[in-house]
Amino acid sequence: MSYSDKVLKCRECGADFVFTAGEQEFYASRGLMNEPGRCPTCRAARRQRMNNGDYAGDRPSRPQREMHPAVCAECGTSTMVPFLPRNDKPVYCSTCYDRVRARR
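RESULT FIELD:
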């Protein structure tokens, strides 16, 4: 399939930008059906906002995870886990968890 450059309008800043034939080919190779809605500058700015955790656009920013102290059931190391440990289930540090998971 042959592609040719298209001029699109950014939905964020309203500027025209070129959706090149190479980009179109890349999108098609990844199975992406929709054309980009933002210009490269707005896409980069949005990505930066989302990576910094202060994005408040289509979805709210994710709250900071509450971490809880625990002692690893395998090696006895103190660790922090993103859930409240219960006494009826073992808790592992990340190193031991990887080993325990590989055994299963």
